[in-house]
Design goal:
By secondary structure, this protein is of the alpha+beta class. The protein is built from four helices and five strands, in the order βααβββαβα.
C-alpha cells in the first residue's frame, strides 16, 4: 500500500468513480443504473454547497484503487450531527492492505472537523469481510431493518 494515497476526489476522476461504483454494485450483488450520475456527482461534490464528500485511493500510476463517500446528517434524538458513510469500496487486490484503515482515518478526521461525535453506516449482511473489518476497527453492530421508498411510488432496487 506504500504507493497508494487516499485523497479527496477531483472532478476529472468522476468517470473513474463511475467504474468503481459499477464494480461495487456487482460485489454487493445489487443493481446499478447509470443515469447521469457523473453530472449529479459534480454538483453534489463540487457545487456551491457540497452535500456529498468523497475520497479516492490512487496508486503511483494514477489508477483508482477504491473510493469512499460520506454525508453529514443530524440525529434528532441526540440533537447532534453525525457523519454517514455512504460507500466504501476497495478493489480486490487492495483489501487487507491497510487501505481500509487509511480511509477510516480520513473519515474520522472529516467527521471530527465537522463536530460529529460518530459515524454510522450499513452493509449487506453477507459482507463478511467488511463486517469483520468494521468490528476490528471498533465499530458495533446496530440491528435494524433497511427500507427504501421512492417518492415516485416505485420501489427502489
Amino acid at each position: 500500500m506504500s504507493d497508494v494515497e487516499v485523497r479527496p476526489i477531483e472532478p476529472d476522476q468522476l468517470p473513474g468513480l463511475l467504474e468503481l461504483c459499477r464494480e461495487h454494485a456487482a460485489y454487493e450483488k445489487s443493481g446499478f443504473r447509470e443515469s447521469g450520475q457523473v453530472e449529479r456527482w459534480r454538483a453534489a461534490l463540487f457545487g456551491d454547497r457540497p452535500v456529498l464528500h468523497g475520497w479516492v485511493a490512487v496508486d503511483g500510476g494514477g489508477r483508482l484503487c477504491g473510493y469512499m463517500t460520506a454525508t453529514i446528517d443530524f440525529a434528532t434524538w441526540g440533537a447532534e450531527p453525525f457523519a454517514y458513510l455512504d460507500c466504501l469500496y476497495l478493489r480486490e487486490p487492495y483489501r487487507g492492505s491497510g487501505l481500509g484503515r487509511a480511509f477510516f482515518e480520513r473519515l474520522r478526521g472529516f467527521a471530527a472537523a465537522r463536530g460529529c461525535a460518530r459515524v454510522e453506516w450499513q452493509t449487506p449482511p453477507d459482507n463478511e469481510l467488511g463486517i469483520g473489518f468494521y468490528r476490528r476497527m471498533g465499530a458495533t453492530d446496530k440491528p435494524k431493518a433497511r427500507f427504501s421508498y421512492d417518492v415516485d411510488g416505485q420501489v427502489a432496487p
